[in-house]
Write a structure and sequence with these properties.
mainly alpha; 2 domains; rod-shaped
Length: about 150
Amino acid sequence: MTGYADLIARLATVADSYAADRAGINAWYEQQCAAAYESLAQADAQLAAAGAALATARGAVEFTDAEAVRLWGLLAARMKVPVPALGVPPGEDAATDGEHPARLLEQVRELLDEARPVTVRRPVRRVLLILLVLALLAGVATAGILLGH
Protein backbone atom coordinates (compact mmCIF):
# COMPACT_ATOMS: atom_id res chain seq x y z
CA MET A 1 0.00 0.00 0.00
CA THR A 2 1.10 3.47 -0.67
CA GLY A 3 1.63 5.95 2.04
CA TYR A 4 0.29 9.39 2.49
CA ALA A 5 3.60 10.99 1.47
CA ASP A 6 3.64 8.98 -1.76
CA LEU A 7 0.10 10.08 -2.58
CA ILE A 8 1.00 13.71 -1.93
CA ALA A 9 4.11 13.34 -4.13
CA ARG A 10 2.02 11.72 -6.84
CA LEU A 11 -0.61 14.48 -6.56
CA ALA A 12 2.14 17.09 -6.84
CA THR A 13 3.50 15.35 -9.96
CA VAL A 14 0.03 15.21 -11.53
CA ALA A 15 -0.57 18.88 -10.62
CA ASP A 16 2.78 19.85 -12.16
CA SER A 17 1.97 17.83 -15.28
CA TYR A 18 -1.46 19.44 -15.44
CA ALA A 19 0.07 22.92 -15.05
CA ALA A 20 2.63 22.18 -17.79
CA ASP A 21 -0.12 20.85 -20.10
CA ARG A 22 -2.28 23.87 -19.36
CA ALA A 23 0.63 26.26 -20.06
CA GLY A 24 1.28 24.45 -23.36
CA ILE A 25 -2.39 24.67 -24.29
CA ASN A 26 -2.48 28.37 -23.41
CA ALA A 27 0.66 29.02 -25.46
CA TRP A 28 -0.85 27.12 -28.41
CA TYR A 29 -4.08 29.13 -28.03
CA GLU A 30 -2.15 32.42 -28.02
CA GLN A 31 -0.24 31.34 -31.15
CA GLN A 32 -3.51 30.44 -32.89
CA CYS A 33 -5.04 33.80 -31.94
CA ALA A 34 -1.96 35.67 -33.16
CA ALA A 35 -2.05 33.74 -36.46
CA ALA A 36 -5.78 34.45 -36.81
CA TYR A 37 -5.24 38.18 -36.20
CA GLU A 38 -2.40 38.18 -38.75
CA SER A 39 -4.64 36.44 -41.29
CA LEU A 40 -7.40 38.95 -40.58
CA ALA A 41 -4.98 41.86 -41.13
CA GLN A 42 -3.84 40.31 -44.42
CA ALA A 43 -7.45 39.79 -45.51
CA ASP A 44 -8.24 43.43 -44.66
CA ALA A 45 -5.23 44.58 -46.72
CA GLN A 46 -6.29 42.37 -49.65
CA LEU A 47 -9.84 43.72 -49.39
CA ALA A 48 -8.56 47.30 -49.46
CA ALA A 49 -6.36 46.51 -52.48
CA ALA A 50 -9.29 44.83 -54.25
CA GLY A 51 -11.49 47.87 -53.52
CA ALA A 52 -8.85 50.17 -55.01
CA ALA A 53 -8.49 47.91 -58.06
CA LEU A 54 -12.27 47.88 -58.47
CA ALA A 55 -12.43 51.68 -58.33
CA THR A 56 -9.65 51.89 -60.93
CA ALA A 57 -11.41 49.37 -63.16
CA ARG A 58 -14.72 51.24 -62.87
CA GLY A 59 -12.96 54.46 -63.82
CA ALA A 60 -11.41 52.75 -66.84
CA VAL A 61 -14.79 51.34 -67.91
CA GLU A 62 -16.46 54.75 -67.56
CA PHE A 63 -13.66 56.39 -69.55
CA THR A 64 -13.84 53.72 -72.26
CA ASP A 65 -17.62 54.04 -72.53
CA ALA A 66 -17.43 57.84 -72.70
CA GLU A 67 -14.66 57.69 -75.30
CA ALA A 68 -16.67 55.21 -77.38
CA VAL A 69 -19.66 57.57 -77.34
CA ARG A 70 -17.39 60.52 -78.28
CA LEU A 71 -15.83 58.59 -81.15
CA TRP A 72 -19.28 57.46 -82.28
CA GLY A 73 -20.34 61.10 -82.40
CA LEU A 74 -17.19 61.98 -84.34
CA LEU A 75 -18.01 59.22 -86.82
CA ALA A 76 -21.53 60.62 -87.22
CA ALA A 77 -20.08 64.10 -87.81
CA ARG A 78 -17.65 62.78 -90.42
CA MET A 79 -20.45 60.93 -92.16
CA LYS A 80 -22.68 64.01 -91.79
CA VAL A 81 -25.56 62.02 -90.34
CA PRO A 82 -27.37 62.55 -87.06
CA VAL A 83 -26.01 60.45 -84.20
CA PRO A 84 -29.37 58.70 -83.63
CA ALA A 85 -29.28 57.51 -87.24
CA LEU A 86 -26.16 55.47 -86.44
CA GLY A 87 -27.79 53.86 -83.42
CA VAL A 88 -25.92 53.15 -80.23
CA PRO A 89 -22.15 52.64 -80.18
CA PRO A 90 -20.99 49.03 -80.22
CA GLY A 91 -20.73 47.60 -76.73
CA GLU A 92 -18.30 45.28 -75.07
CA ASP A 93 -19.64 42.37 -77.14
CA ALA A 94 -17.95 43.89 -80.19
CA ALA A 95 -14.51 43.72 -78.57
CA THR A 96 -12.07 41.11 -79.78
CA ASP A 97 -11.19 38.57 -77.11
CA GLY A 98 -7.93 39.36 -75.41
CA GLU A 99 -7.54 42.82 -76.94
CA HIS A 100 -7.37 45.71 -74.47
CA PRO A 101 -10.15 48.30 -74.96
CA ALA A 102 -7.61 51.15 -74.95
CA ARG A 103 -5.88 49.59 -77.96
CA LEU A 104 -9.21 49.18 -79.74
CA LEU A 105 -10.06 52.83 -79.09
CA GLU A 106 -6.65 53.88 -80.40
CA GLN A 107 -7.25 51.88 -83.59
CA VAL A 108 -10.63 53.59 -84.02
CA ARG A 109 -9.01 57.02 -83.55
CA GLU A 110 -6.39 56.17 -86.18
CA LEU A 111 -9.04 55.03 -88.65
CA LEU A 112 -11.13 58.16 -88.02
CA ASP A 113 -8.06 60.34 -88.58
CA GLU A 114 -7.47 58.61 -91.92
CA ALA A 115 -11.10 58.90 -93.04
CA ARG A 116 -12.11 61.91 -95.08
CA PRO A 117 -15.42 63.55 -94.25
CA VAL A 118 -18.25 62.53 -96.53
CA THR A 119 -19.54 65.21 -98.86
CA VAL A 120 -23.28 64.99 -98.82
CA ARG A 121 -24.89 66.29 -101.98
CA ARG A 122 -28.15 67.95 -101.44
CA PRO A 123 -29.98 67.91 -104.79
CA VAL A 124 -33.12 69.54 -103.38
CA ARG A 125 -31.09 72.51 -102.20
CA ARG A 126 -29.46 72.91 -105.61
CA VAL A 127 -32.77 72.66 -107.45
CA LEU A 128 -34.28 75.32 -105.20
CA LEU A 129 -31.27 77.57 -105.76
CA ILE A 130 -31.54 77.16 -109.56
CA LEU A 131 -35.29 77.88 -109.42
CA LEU A 132 -34.62 81.00 -107.35
CA VAL A 133 -32.03 82.24 -109.84
CA LEU A 134 -34.42 81.54 -112.76
CA ALA A 135 -37.23 83.35 -110.95
CA LEU A 136 -34.98 86.35 -110.36
CA LEU A 137 -33.90 86.34 -114.02
CA ALA A 138 -37.53 86.10 -115.12
CA GLY A 139 -38.40 88.99 -112.78
CA VAL A 140 -35.56 91.09 -114.17
CA ALA A 141 -36.56 90.25 -117.74
CA THR A 142 -40.19 91.09 -117.02
CA ALA A 143 -39.19 94.35 -115.36
CA GLY A 144 -36.96 95.17 -118.36
CA ILE A 145 -39.80 94.50 -120.81
CA LEU A 146 -42.31 96.56 -118.82
CA LEU A 147 -39.94 99.45 -118.38
CA GLY A 148 -38.93 99.34 -122.03
CA HIS A 149 -42.50 100.00 -123.21
